[in-house]
Design the sequence.
């Protein structure tokens, strides 16, 4: 507590005259102040996120989705590059296991809503499953979804994630360096899963990386991909 108070005091002493507008000190102080402005954050409620959702094409639960204006490639690309959301898969940069001192792009499963894939094997009346579905229903209703649509959304998403869980590798697999360090070119990855715009997504995530179809990436689970 004392250390946090001292940091707050130091931040509050940063100069912020107009002549130093956009300086590092100005940015640190104003970022710190914005984090403290809870009344404004609470007042905005879901508006900032709704703006993003609508920009990406809307949400069927709120009846703001139009199939004819839906561009799944753009949405997938922007989710990964603009918002760092690991939709379906995760993209990151890791040390190259076969070339010390170099880095490589890694593509891995995007994860699940529940802590582990084994949760999806439980019966529908299991307390954890019920709590997760209630959480999703409540979340949808906070955005203004009617109760029936919110309930259907929660059930549908759980069943959809259950299908993803079936092909998601378990911890034993992911902790085995022999199994997860699979190098392949982007064009090979595209051949394995033609519905994913791999090159578009990777170039958007790393615009200065000079990524092409010949670029090698690390794929932790080819079966998942």
Sequence:
């Amino acid at each position: 507590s004392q250390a946090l108070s001292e940091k707050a005091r130091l931040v509050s002493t940063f100069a912020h005259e107009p002549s130093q507008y956009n300086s590092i000190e100005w940015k640190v102080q104003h970022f710190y102040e914005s984090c403290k402005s809870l009344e404004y954050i609470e007042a905005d409620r879901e508006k900032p996120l709704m703006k993003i959702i609508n920009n990406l094409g809307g949400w069927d639960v709120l009846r703001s989705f139009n199939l004819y204006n839906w561009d799944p490639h753009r949405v997938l690309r922007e989710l990964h590059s603009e918002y760092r959301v690991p939709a379906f898969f995760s993209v990151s940069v890791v040390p190259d296991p076969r070339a010390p001192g170099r880095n490589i792009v890694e593509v891995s499963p995007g994860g699940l809503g529940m802590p582990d894939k084994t949760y999806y094997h439980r019966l529908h009346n299991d307390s954890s499953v019920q709590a997760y579905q209630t959480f999703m229903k409540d979340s949808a209703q906070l955005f203004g979804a009617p109760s029936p649509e919110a309930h259907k959304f929660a059930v549908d998403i759980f069943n959809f994630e259950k299908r993803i869980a079936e092909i998601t590798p378990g911890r034993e697999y992911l902790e085995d360096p022999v199994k997860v360090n699979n190098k392949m070119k982007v064009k090979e990855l595209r051949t394995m899963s033609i519905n994913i715009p791999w090159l578009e997504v990777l170039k958007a995530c790393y615009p200065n990386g000079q990524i092409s179809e010949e670029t090698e990436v690390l794929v932790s689970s080819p079966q998942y991909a």
User: Anything to note?
Assistant: The CA atoms of residues 81 and 205 lie 4 Å apart.
